Here is the input.
Amino acid sequence: MPLTAALFTMLRMKALPDDSVPIPRPLLRFVRRGEIVSLNNVPPSRTLLDLLRDDLGCTGTKEGCGEGDCGACTVVLGEDSGDGRLKYRAVNSCIRLAHSVDGLALWTVEDIAPTLPTACGSLPPEGAACRGSKPACAGLDGTQKDCVTQSGGLQGMRLRPGEAGSAAPAGDGKGSEPSLHPAQVAMVEAHGSQCGFCTPGFVMSLFGMYQNHVCKGKTITRALAQEELAGNLCRCTGYQPIFKAAQAMAALPVVAVDEAGVLSNLKLLAPGFTGLQRDSAYKLPKSLPDLLAARAAHPEAQLVAGCTDVGLWITKQHREFDHIIDLTQVAELRRIEHYPNHVAIGAAVPLADAYAALTEDRPQLKTFAARFAGLPVRNSGTLGGNVANGSPIGDSMPLLIAMRASIMLMSAHGHREMAVEDLYTGYRTNVMAADEVLAWVKVPKAGRPNPGLQIYKISKRFDDDISTVCLAIDVRVESGKVVHASIGAGGVAATPVRARKTEAALVGQPWTFATVQHAMATLRAEFSPISDMRASSDYRREVIGNLLQRYWFESQGMQQINLQSFTLEEAA
Amino acid sequence: MNAKDMSVSRDAVADLDVMAANAHADAVAAQDSPPGRSKPQSAGQTIFHESARAQVAGAATYVDDIPVARGTLYAAPILSTVAHGKLLGVDAAAARAMPGVRGVILAADIPGDRLLGNFAHDEPVFAHETVQHVGQVIGLVVAESVMQARRAARKVLCRIEPLPAILTVQAALKAKNFVLPPVFVRRGDADAALKSARHTLEGTLEVGGQEHFYLEGQVAYVLPQEQNQWLIHSSTQHPGEVQHWVSHALAVDNHAVRVECRRMGGGFGGKETQAGHLAVWAAVAANKLRCPIKLRLDRDDDFMITGKRHPFAYAYTAGFDDTGRITGLKLTMAVNCGFSADLSGPVADRAIFHADNAYFLQDVEIASYRCKTNTQSHTAFRGFGGPQGMLVIETIMGDIARKLNVDPLDVRRRNFYVDDLVESLAGSGRTARKHGSDSGRADLAEGPRRNITHYGMTVEDNILDPLLSKLADTAQYRKRRQTIAAWNEKSEVVKRGIAITPVKFGISFTATLFNQAGALVHVYTDGSVQVNHGGTEMGQGLHTKVSQIVADELGVPFEKVIATASDTGKIPNASATAASAGTDLNARAAQYAARNVRDNLAQFVAGLDRCGAGAVRFTKGEVVTRVTTRPFTEVVKLAYANRIQLWSDGFYRTPKIHYDKTTLTGRPFYYFAYGAACTEVAIDTLTGESRVLKVDILHDVGTSINPAIDIGQIEGGFIQGMGWLTTEQLVWTDTGHLATHAPSTYKIPATGDVPEHFKVDLWHEPNREDNIFGSKAVGEPPLMLAISVFEALRDAIASTAPANSRVKLVAPATAEHVLKALKDAQSSLA
Here is the structure.
């Protein structure tokens, strides 16, 4: 089935100001429904959601908030994991830039049923041609022609109405209803949709879980569903039926992605494409030298990684960027490199992978890692982006500071390394030069189990929330004395900070409650947090001290004192 | 044109003819199960939501998904950045010069009345002369794309001379700044009762508002039609009101405006009136620019513009005896209404009606102040004042229990409505005024009984005592209370708490006239059925339930019935889908419509088979008489050929209800829906964080039309109520800016907040009143089950302090509020 949505031409299109941007826009190509979609003239600031809904007329994907906090817009991206399989990530399309999916595979809620409906994508919406710049389909050589199409997509058992796995009641025997994917069937059968507006997002998160867990033979527990669906909000159901749906998918007839077909299409997109077309408005460099050269040539361009913050500058501040450099496809920066004494995490590594690496030898951080935004944000956003962005309430920095991590800034002229806390000069300002890129985050290896490291996050809601305060502590005690204290804090100053005075109050002192009480007082006095919609300054000051007390209690072997991981078994 | 001609409010005075009309309705209702209807095949069954398959495939259409018509332009609102001020002028030159901008719409562009056509008639369509809250809409910018319009709207310069703003309910109360006059309800002599009470307790309480956070934001798409007629796609719970308001603003007759809504992506009360504003704004723009206009609010703008659940502040003095039984109560409720009346009158009324919750209040005095503040105009939200009424009495129950050092469950049960005589404790002159002449009960006995509410309605269908007994047993409340107390002794940092709270929620619009509904049922010649009714689908499953009822009435499979979009052109003058009454009203109306068709068919078949029409049965897609069994489709074809009418209307009005707004007495509710929840929580005494660990619910939906849908309402309602009382905090700055205006800062419950143990059971007893299928309304009541969370939190906080300590917790119980309550509890003995 040709994706004719992409076929409308630019003929007779009105020259609108959007089209007058002097820098040419690169071709945008991705794999969808087993076919290669090629689009011309997509503005660099266009979001993936707007591309889907407004340009392609695929309105199945919804906008709930436009800031990556509700998940209604969730879609799934696929990429070659390098081992002959696809890697699937659910992401928020509302703050994802359309061009960032270049070279990837894309699934929306309209794409996963084994028998696809024909309504979406068959025609551009009526009147679309008068609405500003529109993408047009082009051949691989850039000429106007039919899209390259490949067979493939989803294959598997056809479901018949009335059978197990089919979502009756629509089974009227006529067979006209499209069959559904297990993620969809399970949602129907568990009564997981009420108003239905969050449903496409949940379905896609479930599709991601299906591919990443069910298809790999892993069981989806209620706890896993709670964790991986925390980035999807539902206001109707209370989530209970959605957990049931997540757990029921595995028992339904299998629907498999034609991975070989998708992979071969992805390969077709790869060759001869440097991502660094001259004077391109959206640059997707594939190598570090290309990135640094682009940065040097265009210091005015907006540098983005996962765009989970910059996306909001577009949707909420209405900013437009003529020129974007996207580093997420830089091969070197997509790596996590293990060295004898440290781990180097490239700036293009998504938070989900970065935290997996950080928690590998520090399992006590796993729950905290799962509380960093929701999975779709962790799948898009990067650790490097979180650090470079420098929000005072970014969750990674207190941890990295306590870990004594450093960052590597690179430019065409060289590189420099510094402690994370030394990057910042003030509220969202830093020492980076216009041609510099934050390339790596270097985290010392724990070397041995490092139970001394802990991090506490206080937020209004446990999951998918921003810290009111965040405190990371690493204290090492030898012979009853504190030999090392390293404390990072968030939400208490204009930047993420290192609590040097509190560290000083601990190091060399006996590890006793008296010492801790003194350090608590020091910590409370060390910063002047503000009052805002998350909490008052008094609360922040008091609680940050109390979190140090929690650390002390835990060091004394007290258990069941952190509700973050409190379960009924413990309470029983 | 007078606004009062255009629209009516929920609190309009009852129709004088209502008694006579109800007598007729009662007679009709008595025929609920005529002989021709067989055992239900659809109703009572768990049937999937009628749109579920489309929803999971992304194929269900919401307003913003409708393919746009040629020439459609997009609008974005111009917002006030000042809480209160004189609007001196609007300079839109910069905006007009921006790419794609096609027009700027201001108050002067309104062809009709510049005030909205709502009942109170106190709200400008677009702010003119003054602005009254940050986020008030001053006008629109219209452009060729959504983003062009939004970008340009921020470039509009509004010259505003600030005036003093009233931003808190306390300040409004002090300044006597009200949107509506105060209301007082009294029974007996509260002052005397308090004076002679064995114990008294004074207190204050505050509860915050709540943003609806429907996942689909407010949206309207207005399409001018020929001859100055208008088609409006609106995500609304009340298409009729959208119609009235648009016609009022455009100065056209109602019949020239057609409003359609297939479904909403969530409503929760937030689209009862607020959707109308969007439609009016877009219609004014469409009228000026003569083209279709779509207005879809950005989420942040939606937060800034639209009203929320009303925040309340309370002060109370309760008198009680040694057993915890309340003997007197004085209660003041200060309702933060925002800048206009909107639905605040009936919301505040319903709070009064539910200030008793499940309890008999002997000598009581309630003062309700409808305070005007320079904030968004607060509006309907699931429960409609009921939650705010119940919360305060439940906290009083908890306080009494702690003061007497007894189990709060015992205090609650001690105060339940019962059919006993009122004991005369102190002054013998103090007895309950006799109300509710239709109830009969009070007249028979030798004195007033403890089953009459403070507004004079006899509680006839009370099931709370057995319901709570059963819940306490199945949830092992008593045992767990002991276990928890022992556990808390040993746990230094984390403390647990548990509570059972009941819900008694009155069903019916308190404005009697709204309790009417219409429906159309069409049977086509192939035997397929279409039903249309005045209700709207917002996810609650109304269309599913109505279709089930219609399917059974005609004896056809559920799949043969389709419910179509709500449309003012099909059912006129329909009430809002609100007050939990959507199914009660519309399913009954649809049932009557289907019955009319069936009666036509039965009579026709009776003629063929020479039997009585009553002997014709409609079941399983067949029409059965003693002589023949014919497929329904064949009967339909035959009937058509014989010129039998295959479609009909149906109309229903709720019987028995009457309510006198001037004396605040009567029977405003047809019946009560009941339920109770047992909730266990844990709190962290170092940080104030909390978690809901375990929830057991026993809830009364009568005979369920669709158990899965009802349980979905109960679970969803509970979690939404839990959010209201825990994480959902609205914060306004001292300049009146709402600082929590997006999901990044306003936190509704997420997956991790759902208790690990979350069990819902249905109470198995039909509605004692004659209601559709023996069912009860379920939309709102379960939300208030979440008051058990608040009471469990207070129980946990109390465990850290000496016995008899007072627990003063501000709602929502954020970590900061819990930590403060923990500190206060240490230092304040009751």
